[in-house]
Amino acid sequence: MPWTRFHTLMIVALGVGWALDSFETNIIGSVFGVLKTQWHLSAGQGSIAVSVWVFGMLVGAIGFGYLADRFGRKRLFLATLLWYAAFSVMTVFSWNFDSFLFFRAMTALAVGGEYSAVTATMGEFIPKRDRGKTDSLILSGFPLGALLSAAVSYLVLNNLPADLSWRVGFGLGTTMALLFFWIRRAIPESPRWLLQQGRVTEAEAIVDRIVGCASPEQAAQAARRYPSVGFMPEQVAFWWNVKALFGEYRARCLVASAFNFSQAAVVYGVLSLMALVILPFMKVPAGDMPLYYMYGNAAALMGGLTASVLVERWGRRASLFVSYTFTTLSILVIYGTSSLPGMVIGYCMIQFGVTWAYISGYVVSSEILPTRVRATGLGISVAVGRVGAVVAPLMLTNAYASSGTPSSALIALLALALPGPIAAAYWWLRGSETRNVSLEAGSTQSVASAL
Q1: Within 13 Å and on the Cβ side, how many CA atoms surround 205?
Q2: What is the DSSP-derived secondary structure letter of residue 290?
Q3: Where in the cell is it found (predicted)?
Q4: How far apart are CA 71 and CA 20, in angstroms?
Q5: Cβ atoms 251, 450 nearer than 8 A
Q6: In three state form, how does the secondary structure of 234-251 look?
Q7: What pLDDT, on a 0 to 100 scale, did the predictor assign at position 48?
Q8: Exposed e or buried b for every residue in 12-48, given b needs 16+ CB within 10 A?
Q9: What was the pLDDT predicted at 448?
Q10: How far apart are CA 31 and CA 39, in angstroms?
Q11: pTM, two decimal places
Q12: In the chain, how long is the greatest CA-to-CA distance?
């Protein structure tokens, strides 16, 4: 398959979804200072807001992940975007903290579904030689959205009345979702999913349409490497998928889950640590907090771009091991300093490393799971990750409350990060390299070498 303008459009359409997910995930850290004052909230209630969000993502990742395997990728990545927009609007009109929590939880269901549907879809269209780089660029929408949320939060918090500022911030996410919905409509159903359903004619028509976007020279070089007969429709139940993932594909599912747990615990743990512990401990005003998130998110974007290069240049296994190890060691930088600049440098290093790590992890997870269970498997790994995201804020704030200093919270964060480098080391030794390998070949040979 040649690279065409369709593939470029797909990067934008799916990457925007990740940016919006990140915008919603990160904006709470920027505006919580205002909400805390307006509704007289404690740090513990702030942790509850983060935990409710990630629990909703957990449920959405599993539920929508299976639906994406059952009913198709396109229906789900359109439905989750509309669901997100609807409940994001309702969040704007929250009248108290309880209503805010409910609407945030409902919005999180769609974001969890995005994780499953988008990560399953992104590699199924891309030529194998470009798959790692392209997937990484799509996933780099997350730090881009986080950077945008910090910039928007800084502007609205410092230029609008407090009660209005956070509502405008959440409302902008809704506006962007509706604006880009029509772009995502141009992405067709995954040909690989259609083949899995036995709908060969539809799959071939979509492939022909994509090739039609290429130049005549590129189209002439396009090679069909799949047979036109022999595909048997498979309509499987949710529990069949779960049984397969914890049976035949258990090694891949466990590795993907370990990657997700580690990165989610670090991402949400360090977000809570900065918003509820480090910045307040350092007496940083609420209106200035978004500036520090901008620094971290800029570093995260650099981590995403680094991943887009190194997953191809170094290979998947090396990128995984180095990035997860770097992230874990970066936590020690904050632990070893007591100054605000030192903590900010450590925070930026963590953001750089964890973004590089989770992008590498998602690329590998999407490549080593077969098409018929790919979205369900990714949904389960995301759900396991959300367990880490729920546990991390609660553990860190409790550790801080018991000691009164950030050091004990950082030790807890270090422990939660360890499954990532351990799983990466295991995959380095036992897993297969999936760089420049078709999805079908990668998902077949990975299990053989990993068991």
Answers
A1: 7
A2: H
A3: Membrane
A4: 24
A5: yes
A6: CCCCHHHHHHHHCCCCHH
A7: 78
A8: ebbbbbbbbbbbbbbbbbbbbbbbbeeeebebeebbb
A9: 45
A10: 12
A11: 0.82
A12: 68
Distance CA 258, CA 401 (A): 28
Query: Which amino acid appears at position 311 of this protein?
Result: V
- Token reading at 292: 């520090």
Q: Which ranges of 212-288 would DSSP assign to H, the alpha helix?
A: 216-221, 238-245, 250-272, 279-281
Type of residue at 88: S
Query: Letter for the amino acid at 82?
Result: L
Please list the helix, strand and coil fractions of the chain in percent, rounded to the nearest 5, in that order.
Answer: 80, 0, 20
pLDDT in tens, 221-260: 665 555 444 455 555 677 788 888 888 889 999 999 999 9
CA 270 to CA 363: how far, in whole Å? 23
Give per-residue burial for 106-132: e unless 16+ CB within 10 Å, then b.
Answer: bbbbbbbbbbbbbbbbbbbbbebeebb
**Separation between Cα atoms, residue 242 and residue 240, nearest integer Å:** 5
Instruction: Of 282, 365, 397, give the one whose Cα is nearest residue 51.
Output: 397
CA atoms of 20 and 13, how far apart (whole Å)? 11
Closest CA to 190 of 87, 286, 288, 76: 76
User: What are the tokens at 71?
Assistant: 């009913």
CATH topology of domain 5-216+237-450: Growth Hormone; Chain: A; (1.20.1250)
Residue in 73, 74, 87, 130 with CA at minimum distance from that of residue 379: 73
Distance CA 4, CA 213 (A): 6
Question: What pLDDT digit, counting tens, does each position of 198-211 carry?
Answer: 888 999 899 888 88
Nearest to 413 by CA among 214, 273, 257, 230: 273
- Residue 223: how many CB atoms within 10 A of its CB? 6
Token pair belonging to 312: 């191809």
Q: What tokens appear for 251 in the block?
A: 């090694």
Query: What is residue 232's DSSP assignment?
Result: P
The alpha carbon dihedral of 276, 292, 412, 141 has a sign of positive
Tell me which H or E stretch contains 277. none
* Of the listed ranges 78-87, 402-411, 416-425, the one predicted with least confidence: 402-411
Does residue 260 contact residue 361 with C-beta atoms inside 8 Å?
yes
* 434: phi then psi, degrees, rounded to nearest 5: -105, 10
Contact 249, 447 (CB under 8 A): yes
Distance, CA of 205 to CA of 437 (rounded, Å): 24
Q: How far apart are CA 101 and CA 103, in angstroms?
A: 6
Q: How many helices (H) and strands (E) does the chain have?
A: 20, 0
- Residue 433, token pair as written in the block: 């390299």
